[in-house]
Write a structure and sequence with these properties.
The chain has 100 residues and is mostly helical. It contains five helices and three strands; from the N terminus they run ααβααββα. It has one domain: Winged helix-like DNA-binding domain superfamily/Winged helix DNA-binding domain (Arc Repressor Mutant, subunit A). It is 61% helix and 10% strand. A three-stranded antiparallel beta sheet has the order 1-3-2. The radius of gyration is 13 Å and the shape is globular.
């Protein structure tokens, strides 16, 4: 899997520097990699995600919340208590397509 240049050149500076949310960047990177490995949405608990990344569960929850707010992730659940299923969004790609 290749990482989009935008993720390193722009998104890292935006999330880590401007927003001061480095955990959000780590969560986004990890979910992007998992999305590529699984070839689709990632169904994962906060606990599993936090252990895989190496950050606390509360940091993971806050990071996911921020990424949802920034529309960098989409989430779905079968029901209220189900494990969330995350889809990584790349809005910069969508905007390029609209311009073409």
């Amino acid at each position: 899997m290749t990482l989009d240049d935008y993720v390193v050149d722009v998104l890292m500076r935006d999330l880590v520097g401007h927003d001061r949310r480095p955990a959000s960047y780590l969560v986004y990177l990890w979910l992007t990699a998992e999305h590529g490995h699984r070839k689709g949405p990632v169904q994962v608990s906060y606990q599993e995600m936090s252990e895989s990344i190496g950050i606390s569960k509360s940091s993971t929850q806050a990071a996911v919340s921020w990424l949802l707010r920034r529309k960098l992730l989409a989430v779905s659940k079968e029901n209220v208590t189900a494990t969330p299923c995350y889809t990584v969004r790349q809005p910069w790609r969508d905007s390029k397509r609209r311009l073409e």
